[in-house]
Design a protein that fits this description.
Largest sheet: 4 strands, mixed
CATH class of the largest domain: Alpha Beta
Shape: elongated
Strand order of the largest sheet: 1-4-2-3
CATH architecture of the largest domain: 2-Layer Sandwich
Helix content: 55-70%
Strand content: 5-15%
CATH superfamily of the largest domain: OmpA-like domain
Low-confidence stretches: 1-21
Structural class: alpha+beta
Distance between the termini: 178 Å
């Protein structure tokens, strides 16, 4: 073999040795990678196993909490008359939400119905109270009238009994005189004549007792559209009140003080009204009844209606007349005896307050005593 050939054959051997070294390094690297992968997988498996145990513990805790809250909710539902929740733990969140929404709607319906029943009950109670108030006012008025009629009846019966007793005694004395006339005793005859004269004088005195004057005639209508429709004893007061419009406060106060002597009139009560209203509330009705307790027989009650300057003058005239008529009607029902009542209006005014219009929305109640 030549030298050149020998050298040529040695080169592949050297190459083989060189090629075998990288293959061993790759195998080691691969084995190391597999080992690392196995180690990582083991660690991951351990973590997953630990997490699973933790999740199971949390699940058991959540299930216990859910059971406790379910028991609380069922106790509250039982107190409200609702069926218990069953199978809560097996329902999906959507099912639980739907059931809770349904329960909430049911409770809302119950609440609305309960409020409606309460409102209906309050309305019925208010209506009954108003009816009882009107009935009580009518009962008090009738009781007062019954007491006065009973007093008059007792007096009439007493006067009648006294006259009848005198007549009986006079008849007996005359009979005695006829009997005594046939007797010769002069003393008995003189005594009988004296007794007859005495009884005749007593009878004449009894028959001559003044009779209580009849009550004044009732006016033709409760509401007076002008002074011409007013009862005579009220005309002077009405005209004086009409002349006080636009007067100073001191002048109005002085005039009110003079009315007692000029017209035998005294201010009895003031009734206030809300804006645009002519209705009396129950408290005003009771207050009017209390103000009428000590009215003398034969007195007159004059109700004067006013309105504020807010709004149209024609509408305010109608409103003031409506207010006066309502107050006069209630007084006429509650008056204790043979008093007369009339209503009249003066329309819109500022005499009670020039700065606060609502203070002019009133009715004045005046008592006029017979002269």
């Amino acid at each position: 073999m030549s030298e050149n050939e020998s050298h040529h054959h040695e080169e592949p051997a050297t190459a083989a040795v060189a090629n075998s070294a990288p293959k061993s390094s790759v195998s080691a690297t691969l084995m190391l990678s597999v080992a690392v992968a196995l180690l990582v997988g083991f660690i991951i498996a351990m973590n997953l196993n630990q997490k699973k145990k933790t999740d199971q513990t949390d699940l058991y805790s959540a299930q216990a909490e859910l059971a406790s809250r379910t028991a609380t909710v069922n106790a509250e539902r039982a107190r409200q008359g609702l069926p218990p929740l069953e199978g809560v733990g097996m329902d999906s969140p959507e099912q639980i939400a739907a059931r809770l929404t349904k329960d909430a709607a049911t409770l809302a319906n119950f609440s609305d119905r309960f409020r409606s029943l309460l409102a209906e009950k309050d309305s019925i109670i208010a209506e009954k109270n108003n009816t009882l108030l009107v009935s009580e006012q009518a009962r008090q008025a009738l009781s007062s009238q019954l007491g006065k009629v009973q007093t008059q009846l007792d007096k009439a019966l007493a006067d009648g009994a006294s006259s009848e007793s005198l007549r009986t005694q006079l008849t007996e004395a005359r009979n005695s005189l006829e009997q005594y006339a046939s007797r010769p005793s002069l003393e008995e005859l003189v005594a009988a004549k004296s007794r007859i004269a005495e009884l005749e004088a007593q009878l004449a005195a009894a028959m001559a007792k003044p009779v209580a004057p009849p009550p004044p005639p009732a006016p033709t209508k409760l509401f007076a559209e002008s002074a011409a429709d007013l009862y005579p004893m009220a005309k002077g007061l009405f005209e004086a009140l009409n002349e006080l419009e636009d007067k100073a406060d001191l002048e109005i106060s002085a005039a009110y003080n003079r009315f007692a002597t000029q017209y035998q009139a005294s201010f009895l009560k003031e009734v206030r009204f809300p804006t645009g209203s002519s209705q009396l509330n129950p408290a005003d009705k009771l207050a009017l009844g209390d103000a009428l307790e000590n009215l003398p027989e034969g007195a007159m009650i004059l109700v004067v209606g006013y309105a504020s300057t807010t709004g149209h003058a024609d509408s305010n005239r109608v409103l003031s007349s409506d207010r006066a008529t309502v107050v006069a009607t209630n007084i006429d029902m509650a008056k204790p005896g043979n008093q007369v009542v009339q209503a009249v209006f003066l329309g819109q005014t500022k005499r009670f307050s020039s700065r606060i219009p609502e203070r002019n929305q009133v009715c004045e109640v005046w008592q006029i005593n017979p002269k």
